[in-house]
Amino acid sequence: MARRLHRRLRRPAAVLLVTALSTVALAGPAAAAVPSTTAWSGGWLRLAHFSPGTPPVDVYLYPFGGSKAALVLKHVSYGDASPYESVATGQYTVAMRLAGAAADVPPVISSTVEVQQGRAYTVAGLGPASALQLETLPDQLSAPNGQAGVRVIEASLNQPDVTVRISAEDQSSLRFPTSTPYRTVPAGDTAVHVSADGATTTRTVDLAGRSTHTLVLLSSAGTAPQLVDLTDSTGPATEPVGGIDAGLGGLSRSDSNLPTEAGWAAALLLGTAVAGYAARRLRRT
Amino acid sequence: MGRHARPSPPARLALRSLVVLGTAGAVAGAVGLGHVLDRGAAAGYTIAGSALGGSAPAATPQAATAVRPTSVSIPSIKVDSSLEDLGLSATGALQPPSDPRQAGWFGGGTVPGQTGPAIIVGHVDSLSGPAVFADLRLLHPGDTITITLSSGGTVRFQVTAVDRYPKSGFPTAAVYGPQPSPELRLITCGGTFKDDSYLDNIVVYARLAPS
Known about the structure:
The complex is a heterodimer.
Chain A: H1 2-8, H2 11-26, E1 42-50, E2 57-63, E3 71-76, E4 85-88, E5 90-98, E6 109-115, E7 120-126, E8 133-139, E9 147-155, E10 161-167, E11 170-175, E12 183-186, E13 188-196, E14 199-207, E15 212-218, E16 226-233, H3 260-283
Parallel strand pairs in A: 1-7, 9-15
Antiparallel strand pairs in A: 1-4, 2-3, 2-5, 5-6, 7-8, 9-12, 10-11, 10-13, 13-14, 15-16
Helix pairs in contact in A: 2-3
Chain B: H1 9-42, E1 69-74, E2 79-86, E3 103-106, E4 116-121, E5 144-149, E6 154-166, H2 172-176, E7 182-194, E8 197-208
Parallel strand pairs in B: 2-3, 4-7
Antiparallel strand pairs in B: 1-2, 1-5, 3-4, 5-6, 6-8, 7-8
């Protein structure tokens, strides 16, 4: 092989060969093209029953205009809220039937909701049984660093007038069946005080940094209402900064998996061999 | 070899060129090899390193008894890796795993299966070849990712999207921000390799698989 190579050797060929060798070793890593897939588009829906006096219901979720339910929640009682369901963007109809009623009987109440990309909604039965309403509440999904977002739904008929104190600076009075907008409060374990008719109930709620919460006040047999914490969203309390360096370059030649070490080693060995061979041939002359 | 005839002048010129160029190639190879090994040392990566060689991250406010993910399995791209805990660097960036063969979980974030985005990071390559998340970009919506927890339970996720972003325009809110449901993010590098670093990040978005 070496002899044949020698016989055929011409200056241009030699230059070409070594250039090629060097190129193998020195080639700059090329970009690996990655096709970007279409991002999943969707939002979230949470279905709830916050209507005191309204009996348990079955909640149906239909794509708008459809007759086949995408989701059925059976026997949803006063105070129940479903987890968030991921749904595609678009219009939906939410219908409530008395628990156990056939799927084809006319619903007690129904409502439409438009789900937008990346947004979440709570569709809740609210108000007294005599004036049941199915309302869509847009949910807030993040709060600034070191803070949490909180709103309160007053759904207690037994305690229709309440005062809610989340922090010294955050106190609000509200009346059944209304709710507050989201407020931003300092993050951390927080004692929430709810007062009604001179009685106060206190519950400690973990308001993690950046998380959002819906506090629901429910009718109770006592003087003060019951307080339920629904976590709307949560995540890392401290958001990492920017992207991540998670590659060292060994694959950066797009068309080859030849390891970098091997490339350099090949250049070293081939270069040594070629130089050695040529030097030996020259010495003999 | 002794029977060789004396080379003609053009051949001698070619041989002299070969000596020079061959030596140049050898020197380049040696320098390149040295540089690669240097980078290995700088990156704290040792080929013989233990799979659990990473130091414990400072920013992990997890109790020793808290549930944490112990491994990630992605059958469609033949990934099956134990998980080290990842923290934040001094600049606040997420630290990559110490071993390219092993993925890591951001311990300051969400436990997989709980509400929020659980973050798992793996290298796309080591200094010498493919690393644990080399084929991450080949995932498709619908592919399954299974996380095993220290409690012994498993959580299954389904890929919803695979995207690539320049690091200079990384969508931190979409990737790390609070979420209303249990989600998973797998992150690695991609794009052009320049100045010892990839310019892009590949992010796989996944949500809890329907049970």
